[in-house]
Every structure is written in structure tokens, then in C-alpha cells.
DNA 3'-5' helicase
Amino acid sequence: MSDYLEGLNPPQRAAVEQMEGPMIIIAGAGSGKTRVLTYRIAHLLKNGVDSFQILSLTFTNKAAREMKERIGKVVGQSEAKNLWMGTFHSVFARILRSEADKLGYPSSFTIYDSQDTVRLMNSIIKEMGLSKDQYKSKAILSRISQFKNNLITVKAYRNNPELIEADTMAMRPQMGAVYKEYVDRCFKAGAMDFDDLLLRTNELLVRFPDVLSKYQDRFRYVMVDEYQDTNHSQYLIVRALADRFQNICVVGDDSQSIYAFRGANINNILNFQKDYPDVKTFKLEQNYRSTSNIVEAANSLIEKNKTRLDKTIFTSNDAGGKIKIMRTLSDGEEGRWVANSIFENAMNLQKTYDDFAILYRTNAQSRAMEDALRKKGIKYKIFGGLSFYQRKEIKDLLAYLRVLINPNDEEALKRIINYPARGIGETTMDKLSVAANHYNKSLFEIISDLESTDIKIQGPTKTKLNNFATLIQSLQITAQGNNAFQVADEVVKRVGLIKDLQVDGTPEAVNRVENVQELLNGMKDFIEERKEQDLDSSLTAFLEDVALASTFDNKDEDDTPMVSLMTIHLAKGLEFPYVYIVGMEETLFPSAMSVNTRSELEEERRLFYVALTRAETQCYLSFAHTRYRWGKLIDCEPSRFLEEIDERYIEHLAPQRNKVVANRFVDSGLFDDDDIPRDKIRFRKPVTRSVRNQETPEKKTPFKQPQNLRKVTPQLAQQMNTSKPAQKLAAGNKVSHAKFGVGQVISVEGAGVNVKAEVKFENVGTKKILLQFAKLNILES
DNA sequence: CGGTGTCCGATTTTT
DNA sequence: TCGGACACCG
């Protein structure tokens, strides 16, 4: 019956059995945190708490799903399915839908993803006539994100001279106006961005005490996982909800806080004890995951951080192998070494590729690894990067669906209004925008009732717009009473979304058609799954799921063992027997952006700590002396983090470089035991080299990517030149052109349809002209 | 209006 | 080095 308590160690068990009151579980890496969380919920349920009364917030959808499943195994699936469990964003999106009218939003509001917000910001900056160099949309958006996560509304911003001053100093005096316009436009479009899901929840709870009261009463037990990564906005929500019953349990590890860059506030966990004076604290300090060498190495590293909670991770696991450090000359060699090492380990130790992971600081580093793995014939999968749902063809279809549900969704509408091409161009769109602004209506409202405006749009264009409106309206009718899959299928057919692609026939087009097909299949699965669980399976629900899905939520259909490649951020919460952490170099890891302040550097160190503690059996670190970055070959120095690990736990695989004549490489001094102050060396900027890499470029073999993974740029088959050369044109020829007049050919380049000539015209100067189009008459050769 | 070529910026991490 | 945004021509 309560046998689930048996396998727990004393602190774990104590945490599980503590049901009431505020509590914090400080859970070191690999200390069985998920287990404790799972069992604690099961324990609550077994002790008479209603599953509807438990709210459990996790960091990823995947974590939520897994936990739900595990709880189901203890208490039964039917009981588990009523739990409110999910990410902050998905749980509160759900609540916001049911309360949307209070905030003036439609319950079918759209969730803008980052691509949508960038596009919107671009148009705002353009429309406001601001310089796009001073107002970089990404920078503006991240500033706005900061505001929102700290509950600084437009109004609050305007009343805050300090912020205004700061933005003025940063050459962005219009920041407030941009912020206002952005918020207004989202609101008009019935759209929320990621931050709005939290901000609007706060608004809801503050402005409507009865709503707050309702959810306080409902969620008598609140649990938050990865508490160290919550931002201020999330903090306030949790606090408000738990205020009545004070049954709040947060779990986290300050040493694994790695999301400060997007607003996570490590003080939320550091100060939890101050927020709830009668808090009960539980520390899970025994690591069950890794060898003691790994645990001790990680400990010796994280000790270098000043701001941390007091805890000591220990393990009774075997010592295992030491952390192995490999030094290579180039990033290419690093890749080859990793691939070889994985190959040999898999062979010698009888491991499958699932047991291996390659972790890196930046996505760009994956390329060298991919090349090497591919060459070695090792299967791999990349997490992160462009997700399935971000692909053009998928976004196009989703945009149609979004418009059906919420025609005011401006970004979706702009995306599809002329795709497939309907002859509705920029000029028309500009006119519509102006009208929308003038009449304070959405674009779609204007389009569907052109007559009531004095908009000057010509007959043919008018017809096109009317046709578009009719198409959408009739699809909207289809959308009623049909499920998500049926609607999408209908859209594909009626709109002719994949027609061009099917005709096209290039491998790339075929792939796109397959992707669309896969989305349709995905929708079928979604509907079935949701129905089984008695959950909302509407189109709205599907779109929400997609908007909040992360790369991890892709379902893996291919189960051949593959090496996992991902950024360290993505690796949090995962574990692998063999872990390779690559690119251990200054300015890469720690990132050049993070070495200026202590807190940023400490976050990088925590990131490294997270990376190390992913490894169960063996951990490898590698760095290269040269690396291609920004298309240039640059010199690199070993990361300072390498020498922050206690030597006792380290083994160098390559001869150290101090005594050898390292001719072209300036000695970084890393392995020297000299007395030169480290800073002097470390902060030296890498030198850009002009020397080209001597290695012969590897020939890329066509490679079929596994499903759902980041797409490798399709290698378009070189277009064969079947058409006859347009003209026999050579340098020196005298030619005439209808528009440019007479000139002399300077050079001819390119092949087939791409033949172009550089011609120096007497009157208009030098032009490059594609012979396929331009009619050049040869006057003299 | 639509397709193609050119130029510019990106590379810190993402729910 | 590569992809996206923009300009320009037909």
C-alpha cells in the first residue's frame, strides 16, 4: 500500500511525508528530485487530497507528462489525469482562456511565438518611421520582455523617469511609444506573447479578487519545480495562489539556475526562507546518478561561486573514471576525436548510441560535430534549433488555422493573405493597414467589409480581397463542427497549400509535402490522445499546444539508438552515461558576453556544473586551439573553468603543451605552473587569423535526416544546364540594351541560366545583367 | 507584383 | 559561412 515510501532515503521520505505548510526542497543534481515530487503528490492523493486541488508547475511539458505518468502508476491513471500539471505558460494559458472576457480578450486568443513578435515589431518600427538600426526589433523585444516579467506596464513605464532616462541614453527615446504600440497591437489582434501569459494572469488575479479567491480555493496544494528558474512574474503568481492555504512546496537547486538571461531570478529561491518564515527545509544531498569522481569534480567547481545555498552533494557510488580532458588543434579535429571516441566506446563497452550525448554552449557548434559523426556513420539527433513547427510550410498551414479561429490575428493574416500568391501585394496591404488604423478595426474586419470604408482600392484588387474574405469565411464554417484534423485537411485542399510543392518535385518540395502530411497525422494523434484523456481536443487546444511546445516535445518515431546533440541549457534535467562537453574555450564557454560581471560569470559556471552533472559514468571535456567562428578561423584559449576543477579528478588525454614548441600557437599558459596573474592571460582577445585552414574540405555526402529533427539545409542538386546558351557573348564585345543604351562587356560569368555579363554602359555606368532576361544586342565582337 | 541577386548580421542560452 | 531582408529588374 504505502510501499512507495520504502525505497526513499530519510530526507527524501521526510519531504514526501510533509504535506502541509510552506516547504522548500533543495535538491542537488541527481538526488532523485523527480521521484520525491512524484511520490509526494501520490502521497497527498493517498491521504485524501482531491486531485483537482493540486497544482503542479514544471519547467517543460515533457517533465509534466512524465511525472503525470509516474504518478498514474502509483495511484491509477484516472486519478492522475485530474491533476493540474504543466508549465507555467500552459497552465495559465488554460486559465486565461476561461477568464479571457474579463480582460477583454477572446477566449480563442492567439499565442504569438517569437517569430510573430519579431514581425510585428518590425512593422511597428517601420510604421512609426524609426530607424531600424537604433531600434533593433530583437533588442526592443527583449527589453519589453524584461518590463513584462517585472510587471512594468506601459503606464508604469511612463511613470518611471529612471527607465525613460535609461532608454533615452541608449538612443531609444521612443521606447515608451513603441512599447505602447506593441501592447495595443497585440491586444487588438487578440494575441498574447509568452510573457503576456504570465503578466495577464497577474493582472487577472490582482484586478479580480473573486477570481483569485476561486483559484486559491481550488489549488490548495501548490508545487513548483525548478523554482530557481522562475522570474518575478511567476513568483508573484505562485505567491498569490498559495496565499490562503500556504501549502506551497517549491523544489529547486540554486546551483542549477541558468536562465537569468531571460528574467529568472535566483533570489526567488535564495529568499524563500524569508518569504515564509515558518518554512520547512529539506535537503536532498545524495547523488545517485554519477560516479564519485564526477560528483566531486562538480563540487570543486561550484565552490568557486559565492552566491549559493549551503549544501554538500555526496555519493556512495564508485569512483569511476576521472574526467578526461582532450586538447585538439581545430574544431574539425575536435569533432573527429569525439566521433572516434564515441565509436570506440560504443564498440568496446557494448553501449548503444543512446548512451552518449554531446553538449555545447552554442548551437553553432553542432556543425563540426555533425560532420564528424556523419562521416563516421554514427546516427545522431539534434535537439533545439529550428523546430518542426517553425518550418515555413508548417507555419503557413498553422497560420490559416489561426486565422479561422481568430481572424484578428494580424501576424497570421499577413502571412497567408498572399500565400499562395493571390496578387495582394505590399501596396494593398499598406492601404489596408492605414484604414485599419483609421477605423480602429482589424485588418480582417476591413477586408471583409470594404464597402463601408473610403479605401481606394481598384476593382480587380477588390475582387481578390473579397475572394479571400469569402474563402476564410467559408472555411470558418467548416471549422464549426469538425475536428482539428478535418479542418486542416480541408484547408490544405481548398487553399491548395501543397499544390505548387507537389508539382515542383524537387527533394526539398517533397520533404515539405511530407512535413505537412506529418502535421496532419500529428493532429490525428493529438485528437485521439486528448479524447482518451477526456481533454479538450478542439482546434484551439491544438494550436495552443503547438505554440507552447518546445523542441523536446517532438515525438520520436524512429527508435534506432542515436547520439544526442544539444545545448547545455536543453540538457538540464536529463542524464546520459557518457557525456562529451565540447568547446571548453574562453569567449565561448564562458561566453564573451558573460565575463564582465561576477553574477554573469557565476551563471556560466552553474551552466558548466549542470553540464558535468549530466554524466553518469564518464565525462569528457574538449577544447580546440583554433575554431571557425563567424566564418573566420580564430585562435582560442582553454576555458578558465578547466582549471577550476580539482586536479585530482582530472586526466589529460593529450600531451600538455607547455614544454613542447608550439610554434604557431602562442602559449596560453594554461598548463604552466607559473605565477603570471591569470587575468592577464585570460582576458586577452583572440587574434583573428588570416591563414586559411589547410585541411581539405570534407565532401558532404547526402544524408537523410531522422524525422522531427533539425533540418539540414537541403543540398539542392546543381541545376543542370539544358537550355542552349542565350548568346555567345564575350568580354570586349560592344552591346546595346533597350534601356541602358550602348556599352562594352567587361566580363561574363556563371553557367546555364545564371550566365551574367558585367557591362560598362556609356551613360548609366557598370551593370550586371542576367542574359536570360536582358536582351543584349551584340554590335561588335 | 514576383523572382532573383546582393548585402548584412549573426553566435549565448529559450518557455 | 549562412540565412534572411531588401532592392531591383522584367
About this structure: Residues 658-727, 750-755, 770-775 of chain A have pLDDT under 50 and may be disordered.
